[in-house]
Amino acid sequence: MFSIHDEAQLTALFEQEGIPKFRYAQIENALYKNFVTDFSEIQTIPKDVRNLLKEHCFYRSLTVDLEKTSSNGQTTKILFKTQTGEFIEAVIMRHLTGRNTLCVSCQAGCPMACSFCATGKLGLLRNLEMYEIVEQIVYAAKLLYENGATLRNIVFMGMGEPMLNYENVKRAIEIATEQKKLNLSNRRVTVSTCGIVPGIRKFMTDFPQTSLAVSLHAPNDEIRKSIMPVDHTYPLKDLMQILDEYVAKTNKRIFYEYIMINGVNDHVKLADELGKLLQGRLAHVNFIPYNPGEGTDSDGFLPTPRFIIEKFQRTLEKYGIPSTIRATMGDDIDAACGQLANKK
Ligand code: SAH
């Protein structure tokens, strides 16, 4: 059995069975434009083809364990259970501007062990399959569609490190952006990495139009190492070098995420250090107030007060670096990375 999202296997099966190519186009349309929930709903194809599908494919592998919408209706968190019993999460964020963003997971758990992250506490359970990533996207797109809305943006900022499940993430992005499939604009898909240099190198060749976010979180190796073990393998010098290559090749601005943790990486002198690091580079910094949640507070971390984050912003301005402070959404539903799955 294979997933209906596996185009290569499906078209190979059709070829073997002598089924004309346009049947795939009909299935594609039903899956990604009409969001059918089962093969039986694909009315455009004859019954024998539908039966063939039932025999060889599965429509969905994930089941919804929990779906919670925040009290203001802006955020919906979906906790999925995989066939093998792991829990993964996706979050829909409805911005006031009308833009809808989905945050997807690419791994169950995560091997990177960043000290502030709930998912990091789980360790890596396993990589998600391509179709498990696509199913999260299709599920959310359908949910929005049924409410007269559309999915505009996808961010790989859920559980896991996308650069360590590269091939499956790659195929999922292709399905999200192919015109005949979900047809999202490449620049509205953002892959967020903790800084895996070889992954960034592959990504900039395969996806020069897709957006890249980097979890920086500190302007020097000393602090970065203390909260992100990945810095031992790929220190800032190597990271910044590949990011410069990325910008030279793609001419795209990089989004730097900087989680603000009280007393850890928010000392005012670090604002200047950050400014100096990014000065002259095509960068946008997104400050994320640390989200304390169950499972993440073992290090006693607390969020940085707002006025200090604003001070960082003003300092970066002096260096010509634009920045934003991420709006916190969905606090009442544990919408920070890994918080729901951890409770399980
Ligand atoms: N592995 C990827 C993507 C997943 S995490 C990466 O590291 O970029 C997505 C973002 O959420 C990262 O910037 C991560 O550092 C941040 N994050 C993790 N735990 C958080 C918390 N408790 N509060 C705020 N942001 C957090």
Per the principal axes of the C-alpha atoms, what is the gross shape? elongated
Q: For the record, what CATH class of the largest domain applies?
A: Alpha Beta
Percent helix: 25-40%
As for the CATH topology of the largest domain, it is TIM Barrel
The average pLDDT is: 94
Describe the overall structure.
- This protein starts with a strand and ends with a helix.
- The protein has 2 domains: 2-58, Orthogonal Bundle (DNA polymerase, domain 1); 63-333, Aldolase class I (TIM Barrel), CATH 3.20.20.70.
- The longest helix has 17 residues, at 130-146.
- Helix 4 runs parallel beside helix 5 and helix 6 packs parallel to helix 9.
- It has helices at residues 7-16, 22-32, 47-56, 130-146, 166-177, 197-206, 221-227, 230-233, 236-250, 268-278, 306-318, 339-343; strands at residues 2-3, 57-58, 63-69, 75-81, 87-94, 100-103, 107-109, 124-127, 153-156, 189-193, 211-215, 254-260, 283-289, 323-325.
- The strands form 3 sheets. A 10-stranded mixed beta sheet has the order 3-4-5-6-9-10-11-12-13-14. It has a two-stranded parallel ribbon with strand order 1-2. Strands 7-8 form a two-stranded antiparallel sheet.
- The protein has 344 residues and is of the alpha/beta class.
- It is built from 12 helices and 14 strands.
- A hairpin with a 5-residue loop joins strand 4 (75-81) and strand 5.
- Bound molecules: S-adenosyl-L-homocysteine (SAH).
- Residues 114, 116-117, 157, 161, 192-194, 215, 257, 259, 288, 290-291, 296, 336-337 line the site of S-adenosyl-L-homocysteine (SAH).
